[in-house]
Design brief:
This protein is mainly beta. It is built from no helices and eleven strands. Strands 2, 4, 5, 6, 9, 10 and 11 form a seven-stranded mixed β-sheet that branches. The protein has a four-stranded antiparallel β-sheet with strand order 1-3-8-7, with no helix packed on it.
Length: 128
């Protein structure tokens, strides 16, 4: 079992920055590939970013590439999502996800089915 707790969401203005955190417990963090997803009002949950177990490889949705950065600190069992130049269309509930089944340390998944544990979500609201 992996428990995930997100934090760092809030209400900001367009152009501002936020950093989300995801604290993991229940399993050796370095054995888990991680990702962020989001669900905007009235829309399906979508992929935002992913990071491999070793933190070397990352992937971003085209809508956030160049503005968001994903990172992890395996010594602190925590993953981060740095979000810069936020836009109103980034408004969503952001979910942290863990892939405990990934074999290789340098790979990651970018579909919901790749992940077997999910956090409860944190709300990010970006106003004009």
């Amino acid at each position: 079992q992996v428990q995930l707790v997100e934090s760092g969401g809030g209400l900001v203005q367009a152009g501002d920055s936020l950093r989300l955190s995801c604290a993991a417990s229940g399993r050796t963090f370095s054995s888990i590939a991680m990702g962020w997803f989001r669900r905007a009002p009235g829309k399906e949950r979508e992929f935002v970013a992913a990071i491999s177990r070793n933190g070397i490889n990352t992937r971003f949705a085209s809508s956030v590439k160049g503005r968001f950065t994903i990172s992890r600190d395996n010594s602190k069992n925590t993953m981060f999502l740095q979000m810069n130049n936020l836009k109103p269309e980034d408004t969503a509930v952001y979910y942290c996800a863990a892939d405990s089944r990934r074999t290789y340390s340098s790979t990651y998944g970018y579909t919901e089915s790749s992940y077997d544990y999910w956090g409860q979500g944190t709300q990010v609201t970006v106003s004009l």
